[in-house]
Structure formats: structure tokens, C-alpha cells
């Protein structure tokens, strides 16, 4: 069964973006392989070219974004059997690679594209690397040159490699062929319906400013009444909702959490927020986003059965404060500052927003229908 194929009616990446992807893929492959292992470097360059290109196109084109989520849906369904290769680690590794690719592109995201001293413009706005306005994301003809054949993938053959990955994840205990129920399962869940149907709903700006402040208990609990009365609700696109409907069927709870974070990051990105990499192990930030003059710290949590949300409570053994509290943010900033030059730069951005009062703390819970957001009190500098 074929995965979603490459559609040349999608908005094309700018040539400058393609060059960045090529360089990043080669650098990552060289780092991942032993020196001189040409076969490893070649295969890893292809893998990272595909992965970076998929993430990049999803950030700048609505249709590509829906296609990416549809393909991820297929991988999730293929991995529902605990004995499938996907459930035994392949899906988790691939999800991590998508997150790694996003982090690799983050330093370039939002930077103005300049060619021969001229600023690139599309749909009435300046073009920026790996980010786009709503009009640019909706325009399938961005970066086309009239009368010139649209370029294919950075490395030809992406659709076939995607199909092979899907079949491998559905294979049971390394079998050559995937489980014979896979195709029926996918069709039964209507994951192969027209991607166009997943774009029927207009993408509205995330209603973040509508959320009122709530107070978490010392144990990290945010009561259901606060979520309902002070929070705000945003509806997912059909593609996001379809993926969320499958996540809880996976046998791996850690993977469920990673996928929730991926869906939330996708939601914020397609609503015009620029992501920053705020990761430093397990104790920094699920998401850091910039929009306008504000910096948003986002913690993603599942919604409890009673409608409440639970943050990690204070840990007296380790001295770690309640998650997302002001003291917890301070300790996370110290960890982030020491995690490398790029991480230190993100920490400095968060610190500046904290000092000037433009930092917003959000807790986001997700289910198959959408996303609920609550604000925590504005941190004190």
C-alpha cells in the first residue's frame, strides 16, 4: 500500500531553503557515522534530507502539513500491534527524528530570505526561511517559476522510501511482509481519504489571548473548573484530530507523550508561531514559541478523565519545584543555559522576555477534538 505521494502542486521550498537542508543533512550524516564509512554517510544523508524536507514543507505549506500528519497517522496505525516493528521502537525513533529535524531547522526559521541583495517576496509579504504567513502557506504556487518544471524532492524517491518505512513498521517481528490487516485497518480509519478534505476548515488564529489565568496547586493540579471557566479551546484541523484519535491506542506511554508534543508544536507553527528549541533533557520546556513581541512557554499534558490537568509536583528529594512555577522556570533556564551555544541563546531570549514582562506561561492539554489552553500567572522578573 502506498503512502501519501509527493504532490507537485504543493508550495515549493525556496532554493535557499533547499540548500540549507542539503547542508544540514550532510553534516548530520557525517556526525552520525564513523569517519570514512561512505555507505553509512550516503544512507544517512538521504534519510535526513527526506526528514528535514518533510518538516520544512509542513511549516510553509498547508497541504504538505496535512499530508505529513496523514502519513504519521498511517505509521501510528501500523504500530498498534505490540509485536510490530513500529511498536518495538521504529516509530519512536522516527518521531524523535522529526523532532530533531525541527530543532535543526529552528536556528534558520523566521530569517529573511535574501537573494543577490534582494529580499524575496511572496503573496505580498517577505519570505522567511522555514516559516510563512497564512497566505503563503495557503498558496500552492509559491516559488514557482512560470514555464519551468517544478523541482522534485531534494533527493529523488521520497515517496517510495516513505512507503517502505510504512511497510517495515507494520511488519510483525521482522517479517518481510506487514500484517495483512494493515491495509484494511488504514482504510477502515479513512486515513487515506482525500487530503483536500483535511483542509476544508479555515485555520483560525490560536485564541491564546482569550485564556484567563489559573492557579495550580502546590501538587501541580489545575482543577477541571478552572480549565473549563478560565481556559480557552481551539479546534484541530481534521488531520491533527485524526492523529490524536489514534495516539491513545499505542502501547508506549512515552511515545504517546512525544506525539502529543508533536501535534501541539504543529498547531502552534501553523498558526504563525515560530518555535525555538527549549529542550535540555527531561526537565526543561516542552515548547518555546515566539510571536510578535511575546515568548510563550508551553507545557503539554493529557487531559485527565475528570477534566483536570496535572503538572509534575514539587520533588523534595531532588529539590525540583512544581512544574512551570517561577522557581522551576529559573532552574530550567540554568540547565538550558549550560546545554550548548544554541540552547544558551534560547535561554537568553526567555530571560529577556521574563525581565521585560513579555513571557507567557501556557499549559496545553489535548484530546481528539482539540486543544485546551490555560495561562499561569505572569512570571515575576
Description:
The protein has 381 residues and is of the alpha+beta class. It folds into two domains: 15-198, no CATH class; 208-376, Trna Endonuclease, Chain: A, domain 1 (3-Layer(aba) Sandwich), CATH 3.40.1350.10. The protein contains twelve helices and twelve strands. It has helices spanning 15-32, 38-60, 62-78, 86-105, 134-138, 158-170, 182-188, 224-230, 238-247, 253-270, 326-337, 341-356; strands at residues 114-115, 118-119, 121-122, 125-126, 221-222, 232-235, 274-276, 287-291, 294-302, 309-310, 359-367, 370-376. The strands form four sheets. The protein has a six-stranded mixed β-sheet with strand order 6-12-11-9-8-7, sandwiched between helices. A two-stranded antiparallel sheet has the order 1-2. The protein has a two-stranded antiparallel ribbon with strand order 3-4. A hairpin with a 2-residue loop joins strand 3 (121-122) and strand 4 (125-126). Helix 11 runs antiparallel to helix 12 (341-356). The radius of gyration is 21 Å and the shape is globular.
Amino acid at each position: 500500500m502506498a503512502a501519501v505521494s509527493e504532490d507537485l502542486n504543493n508550495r515549493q521550498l525556496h532554493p535557499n531553503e533547499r540548500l540549507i537542508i542539503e547542508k544540514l543533512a550532510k553534516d548530520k550524516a557525517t556526525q552520525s557515522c564513523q569517519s570514512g564509512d561512505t555507505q553509512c554517510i550516503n544512507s544517512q544523508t538521504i534519510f535526513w534530507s527526506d526528514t528535514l524536507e518533510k518538516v520544512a514543507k509542513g511549516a510553509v505549506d498547508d497541504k504538505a502539513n496535512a499530508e505529513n500528519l496523514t502519513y504519521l497517522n498511517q505509521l501510528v496505525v501500523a504500530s498498534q500491534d505490540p509485536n510490530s516493528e513500529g511498536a518495538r521502537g521504529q516509530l519512536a525513533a522516527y518521531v524523535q527524528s522529526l523532532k530533531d529535524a525541527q530543532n535543526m531547522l529552528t536556528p534558520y526559521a523566521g530569517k529573511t530570505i535574501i537573494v543577490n541583495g534582494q529580499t524575496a517576496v511572496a503573496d505580498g509579504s517577505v519570505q522567511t526561511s522555514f516559516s510563512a504567513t497564512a497566505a503563503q502557506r495557503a498558496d500552492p504556487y509559491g516559488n514557482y517559476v512560470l514555464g519551468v518544471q517544478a523541482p522534485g524532492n531534494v533527493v529523488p524517491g521520497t515517496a517510495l522510501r516513505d512507503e517502505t518505512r510504512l511497510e517495515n513498521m507494520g511488519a510483525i517481528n521482522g517479517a518481510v511482509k506487514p500484517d495483512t490487516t494493515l491495509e484494511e485497518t488504514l482504510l477502515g480509519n479513512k486515513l487515506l481519504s482525500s487530503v483536500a478534505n483535511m483542509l476544508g476548515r479555515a485555520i483560525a488564529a490560536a485564541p491564546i489571548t482569550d485564556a484567563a489565568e489559573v492557579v495550580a496547586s502546590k501538587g501541580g493540579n489545575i482543577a477541571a473548573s478552572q480549565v473549563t471557566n478560565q481556559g480557552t479551546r481551539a479546534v484541530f484541523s481534521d488531520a491533527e484530530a485524526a492523529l490524536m484519535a489514534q495516539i491513545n491506542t499505542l502501547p508506549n506511554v512515552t511515545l504517546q507523550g512525544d506525539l502529543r508534543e508533536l501535534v501541539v508544536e504543529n498547531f502552534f507553527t501553523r498558526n504563525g508561531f515560530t518555535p525555538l528549541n527549549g529542550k535540555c533533557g527531561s526537565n526543561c520546556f516542552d515548547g518555546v514559541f515566539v510571536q510578535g513581541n511575546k515568548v510563550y512557554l508551553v507545557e503539554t499534558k493529557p487531559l485527565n478523565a475528570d477534566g483536570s490537568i496535572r503538572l509534575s509536583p514539587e520533588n523534595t528529594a531532588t529539590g525540583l519545584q512544581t512544574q512551570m512555577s517561577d522557581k522551576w522556570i529559573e532552574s530550567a533556564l540554568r540547565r538550558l543555559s549550560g546545554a550548548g551555544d544554541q540552547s544558551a541563546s534560547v535561554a537568553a531570549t526567555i530571560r529577556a522576555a521574563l525581565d521585560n514582562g513579555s513571557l507567557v506561561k501556557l499549559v496545553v492539554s489535548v484530546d481528539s477534538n482539540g486543544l485546551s489552553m490555560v495561562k499561569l500567572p505572569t512570571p515575576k522578573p
